[in-house]
Amino acid sequence: MGDVTMYGSVSVDGFIADDLDQPGPLFDWLTGGDVPLDESGVLLVSQASYDYVRPYWDRIGVTVVGRHVFDLTDGWGGEPPSGIAHVVVVTHRPAPEDWNPAAPFHFVDGIEAALAKARELAGDRVVEVAAGDVGGQVLAAGLVDEVRMDVTPVVLGSGKRYFGATRSQLLLEDPEEAIQGDRVLHLRYRVRK
């Protein structure tokens, strides 16, 4: 079974979006380089970011997101982002009425059921959990093995927190990696169990 990894770009003051759910400059590092990160030609990063991010993305089998992210992205048009095979959406509501049932999206109620479905779909590949409220819930439940953060040099001041509404103290190990890219610092921590 692969690791469960919480992942996202984050401001230095701990936010993944502002109060209006806008990421602002948090993703500038994904378009400011000269090395293509994927086949789209849109994502261009530094060589250091490519060497860190691409191997990780290639190991992801499933991404777990909350319904809020799904709705904000309009379900990525039915195509999982970044070449991911499946997306598990944590929600108390069913799929949208006009949703294509053949799209590789799975609507599941609760984080435990979402992680069980994601692990089933991912096999020995990584289960990625999006940072934010759902990620924070999964972390607080002790189900996250690793935290990856792309820390960008911006202060948002307020907004959506990387760890969601988590109120409990959780310990991470020392950083396993700290890679400096252009306009981003990639950090990777194991979660202390």
Describe this structure in words.
It is a single chain. The strands form three sheets. The protein has an eight-stranded mixed beta sheet with strand order 7-6-5-8-1-9-12-11, with helices on both faces. A two-stranded antiparallel sheet has the order 2-10. The chain is globular and about 40 Å long. The protein has one domain (4-190): Dihydrofolate Reductase, subunit A. The two termini are 17 Å apart. The longest helix is centred in the N-terminal third of the chain and has 13 residues, at 47-59. The chain has 193 residues and is α/β, with parallel strands linked by helices. The protein contains four helices and twelve strands, in the order E-E-E-E-H-E-H-E-E-H-E-H-E-E-E-E. It has helices at residues 47-59, 67-72, 111-122, 133-140; strands spanning 4-11, 15-17, 35-36, 44-45, 60-66, 86-90, 105-108, 126-130, 146-152, 160-161, 177-181, 184-190. Strand 11 and strand 12 form a beta hairpin. The model has no long low-confidence stretch (mean pLDDT 95). Helix content is 20%, strand content 30%. It comes from Agromyces aureus. GO terms for molecular function: 5-amino-6-(5-phosphoribosylamino)uracil reductase activity. It holds the Pfam family RibD_C. InterPro entries: DHFR-like_dom_sf, RibDG_C. Residues 85-173 form the Bacterial bifunctional deaminase-reductase C-terminal domain.
